[in-house]
Specification:
Blueprint: H1 13-61, H2 66-79, H3 88-92, E1 97-101, H4 119-128, H5 132-138, E2 142-146, E3 149-157, E4 163-169, H6 171-206, H7 208-221, H8 237-293, H9 299-330, E5 338-341, H10 342-356, E6 362-365, E7 374-377, H11 379-396, E8 403-409, E9 413-420, H12 427-431, H13 445-448, H14 454-464, E10 468-473, E11 479-486, E12 516-518
Parallel strand pairs: 6-8, 6-12
Antiparallel strand pairs: 1-4, 2-3, 3-4, 5-7, 8-9, 9-11, 10-11
Length: 519
């Protein structure tokens, strides 16, 4: 069975904070009021008791009897004229009640008309005071009710055995306490009202940034990923820190979603390009095999068909190998970083190019005195980088276009610069040079046999070596590729520095006979 609440629970944070503040202050005011009422009651009651005891001591110390009191009352009545003369004797003792009892505790006619007590009060006192003699002996003050009025009384025994009852009204004390309660209640309610209004206003002002955050979150959920939380003027430091943290998180989320969309688009584009690259050779192989199976080829055609099937199979094999190489590089494998002599790699690649194109002028600019330039990396990967770059020069530039290869070794980095004198690229093609399956001249693809993955592999390998690769090109100005790699003695991010191996002894450089010039 569910429990029902007596009062509905506030739903908004502003209302809950306001209710909590008002409740806490109300408890504090209630405790303060209770304490003040008790203190006032004790102080005023103590004052009444002190007044009664002073009067009690005055009566008990005076050698007076009931007969003497009667004479004093008579004298007070003669001296006091007016209708209130009967109270003159009681006023003389600063009392509201002055009653004389005999030795047995019964009402006496002494000062009957001068003690401020009528017959009703005397009767009520007789019934209220069970043992006045015991009170006279103890000297304590007690509360009694006579004729509908509360009194604080003390009893004093005279020398002849009679007793005097002196009392003061408690109505003044009760009236003072009542007024105090009224004023405290009014002030407390006014204070709680002001607190409720002020707390609600302050909460609305301080929590307004949270409403802005809710609006921003709703806008982002509707697709506005660029929406951010504005800086709150009235927010606290915690709210500003929360806004800053949420903006940073939203920026990361937007970046991640953008990158995810870009990666998804690249993946779709990659799958389409890979399918297109594989579809053409597969269609050729399938067509030649169907012709061969149906016996539609003579001996010469069969030989040409087998040659084409073999060429297309090699093309597909090369494409698959390049795709596997890119996939392995994207998985960031743990490469075996060792000191690699970039000059040696350049010499070998330049010699291979000179063997394939003897008429191409080549200029090698290597460190002076035959010194080696050691980079920290994987030799097979770096050799593939140099080979791909020179292969692009061989395929995409005229055979007689000059080529300059420069290696510059320093303490922290090794720079490899390859500049050709080919047709170059326009800015749009240059920005896509490292995209997979990109070809600046797609019409020449069947002639070159390339799949457009060479530069993508170059970038992936260089990035795996914690280096950079940049292009400098323009139409008719050739293409310059600049690769920067960490030196063997320089620390690289994600790799432990390795001391360079001892450089092998080299013979002085000499010019080759295949158009290769060493500087």
């Amino acid at each position: 069975m569910t429990r029902r609440r007596l009062l509905p629970r506030p739903k908004t944070l502003r209302a809950r904070l306001t209710l909590a503040n008002v409740a806490f202050v109300a408890l504090g005011l209630l405790a303060t009021a209770a304490f003040s009422v008790m203190a006032t009651y004790m102080v005023l009651g103590s004052e009444i008791d002190n007044t009664l005891r002073d009067s009690q001591r005055s009566v008990s110390s005076a050698p007076v009897t009931s007969r003497g009191l009667q004479q004093l009352c008579t004298l007070a009545g003669i001296l006091q004229d007016g209708k209130d003369g009967g109270l003159s004797f009681a006023k003389a003792f600063k009392q509201d009640l002055f009653v004389v009892l005999d030795s047995d505790g019964r009402n006496s006619s002494v000062c009957e008309n001068s003690g401020g007590a009528n017959s009703r009060i005397r009767e009520d006192l007789g019934s209220a005071l069970d043992d006045p003699a015991a009170l006279a002996r103890s000297g304590k003050a007690v509360n009694v009710r006579a004729d509908g009025t509360d009194y604080r009384v003390v009893v004093t025994r005279l020398s002849d055995g009679s007793m005097v009852v002196q009392g003061m009204r408690y109505s003044g004390l009760e009236h003072a306490i009542h007024k105090l309660l009224v004023w405290e209640s009014a002030a407390g309610l006014a204070l709680l009202g002001l607190l409720a209004v002020g707390s609600l206003t302050a909460a609305r002002r301080r929590l307004s940034p949270l409403e802005t955050m809710v609006e921003t979150a709703s806008a982002i959920a509707e697709g506005d990923l660029s929406r951010r939380i504005a800086t709150a003027r009235h927010g606290s430091s915690e709210v500003r820190q929360l806004s800053t943290a949420l903006n940073a998180m939203l920026q990361q989320i937007e970046t991640a979603l953008t990158e995810s969309e870009r990666a998804t688009a690249q993946l779709r584009h990659f799958l389409a390009d890979a399918s297109h690259e594989l579809r053409t050779p597969l269609a050729s192989v399938q067509g030649y095999l169907q012709l061969y199976e149906k016996g539609m080829l003579d001996a010469d055609d069969k030989e040409r068909a087998l040659h084409r099937v073999s060429a297309e199979a090699k093309r597909m094999s090369r494409l698959v190998d390049e795709l596997l190489a890119l996939a392995r590089l994207e998985e960031r494998p743990a490469l075996d970083f060792q000191p690699v002599d970039v000059c040696a790699l350049v010499r070998d690649a330049a010699a291979d190019l000179a063997a394939q194109q003897p008429g191409r002028p080549q200029t090698l600019r290597l460190p002076a005195d035959g010194r080696a330039a050691y980079a920290l990396g994987d030799e097979a990967g770096l050799r593939q980088v140099v080979g791909n770059l020179l292969s692009n020069v061989r395929v995409h530039t005229p055979p007689d276009a000059p080529l300059v290869i420069e290696v510059d070794g320093a303490d922290t980095a090794v720079r490899l610069r390859i500049a050709d004198s080919g047709p170059g690229l326009d800015p749009r093609d240059a920005s896509r040079a490292f995209d997979r399956f990109f070809r600046a001249d797609p019409e020449r693809a069947p002639d070159t046999g390339g799949a457009g993955l060479g530069m993508a592999i170059v970038q992936a390998v260089v990035q795996a070596h914690h280096g950079t690769v940049t292009l400098d090109t323009a139409p008719g100005r050739g293409l310059t590729v600049l690769i920067t790699l960490p030196a063997a003695g320089a620390p690289a991010a994600g790799a432990e520095p390795t001391a360079p191996a001892a450089a092998p002894k080299r013979e002085p450089a000499a010019a080759s006979t295949n158009g290769l010039a060493l500087e």
